[in-house]
Automatic annotation (TrEMBL):
Localization terms from the record: Membrane
InterPro entries the record matches: HAMP_dom, HATPase_C_sf, HATPase_dom, His_kinase_dom, HisK_dim/P_dom, HisK_dim/P_sf, Sensor-like_sf, TCS_sensor_his_kinase
Domain Histidine kinase: 262-476
UniProt xrefs under Gene3D superfamilies: 1.10.287.130, 6.10.340.10, Histidine kinase-like ATPase, C-terminal domain (3.30.565.10), PAS domain (3.30.450.20)
Catalytic activity: ATP + protein L-histidine = ADP + protein N-phospho-L-histidine
Parts of the chain that traverse the membrane: 6-27, 184-206
Source taxon at top rank: Bacteria
Organism of origin: Pseudomonas petrae
Every HAMP domain range: 204-255
SUPFAM superfamilies: ATPase domain of HSP90 chaperone/DNA topoisomerase II/histidine kinase, Homodimeric domain of signal transducing histidine kinase, Sensory domain-like
Keyword Transferase among record annotations: yes
An example molecular function term from Gene Ontology annotations: protein histidine kinase activity
Catalytic activity, EC: 2.7.13.3
Name of the molecule in the record: histidine kinase
Amino acid sequence: MRLGLRIFLVYALFIGLTGYFVLNTVMKEVRPGVRQSTEETLVDTANLLAEVLQADVKAGILSQSRFPQVLTAYGLRRPDAKIWGMPKNQVNNRVYVTDAHGIVLLDSSGEAVGQDYSRWNDVFLTLRGEYGARSTRSDPQDPNSSVMHVGAPIRDGDRIIGVVTVAKPNSSLQPYVDRTERRLLYYGAGLIVLGLMFAALLSWWVSSALRRLTEYAQAVSEGRRVELPRYRGGELAQLSAAVEHMRTQLEGKDYVERYVHTLTHELKSPLAAIRGAAELLQGDMPADQRQRFVSNIDNESARVQQLIERLLNLAMVEQRQGLEEHVLVPLAGLIEDTLAAQTARIERKGLIVERLITAQLVVTGERFLLRQAFSNLLDNALDFTPDGGTLRFSAEREGEHVNVLFFNSADPIPEYALPRLSERFYSLPRPDSGRKSTGLGLNFVEEVMQLHGGEMQIRNVVGGVMVGLQLRVSLR
């Protein structure tokens, strides 16, 4: 099972269980909470009525007072109120008054006058000086038919002379309870869905970050050039830095071993020639022969120096994972600088140079590396272009890229050699001398193109050889 899915499932389980327990607890508290608030209101109402009725009960004239008519009018009122969006069109409180023996003196419903209520807790406990309240079902088979009763003592000094009870059916509270429960369910479900969405986003983010590191590690193991994933602080940034440090250490060790082996192998031939010539020079020989051996030593020394310089340049670009700068480089100016460095050689061979690149065209990249790459291509072309031949520089715009084309008139490259030209140390004999080069120039150019997100192609065309370089382009 994928890590991202595991994170999501664990988070979803946590959110689900938390949501269930919280909602379950809150839902269980809604109904008691509403009833407690209602009971508190009934207590206030009952005590207010106890003070209002105290004089009439003490005088024994409650039935002759205006209070029975007031209760009747109260029962007929239509409040036409909206309480938090819920309509209320009738009053629901029942009020009854008992004497000191629990006999009902007055009942707003008109049902219990003269009955003995002394056994009901609201009357029984209140007459004893305690808090009297009860909840009784009007229908024993219906749990929703319960009615709350709260009693308040009617006092004459310290003596309790009666009880006034205010009752309210729980069914009148049910619409508010139902609405509150529905809202809690909606809000709870919304929060759970939001939590699951956050869990999905978190698992996707973690999986994506780890996948990028995995792809980076795989690319490094395959020897491909790839940019290190960047993170802002935290464990992922530390992991990324650790992976990059490990790559640098392993690559550096392997790189040094490989280059020492390569350099040792490539230096054997020129050093053997230098040593052989030096040994022969120690003996007596004609001046012309001595000059030939001195010339061999000079040529082989130059070859060693060129090999070391090319290897150092190649090592510089191979160790890079990206460009150090991205600037706009005028393509025409870059070509002119490259040609200027080889002016003497071009004039000596009598070559025709054609420049077909507009002054406005620029490429994006690192000027130093591009200059070196172009110099290697020109140096390679000069080795194979015969005297009086042609060099042509042109560019073709294709969308966001430009193809820079180098043409030199020369014999066709053998088909077997075309796919191997950019291999390290692979080289063809030069027409003039029959000697091979270091075989590092075109490999260097290919590495520079990869750093610039482009590629190099070499093909035979009519009359010569064409080298194409793809670079990112921008117009002024």
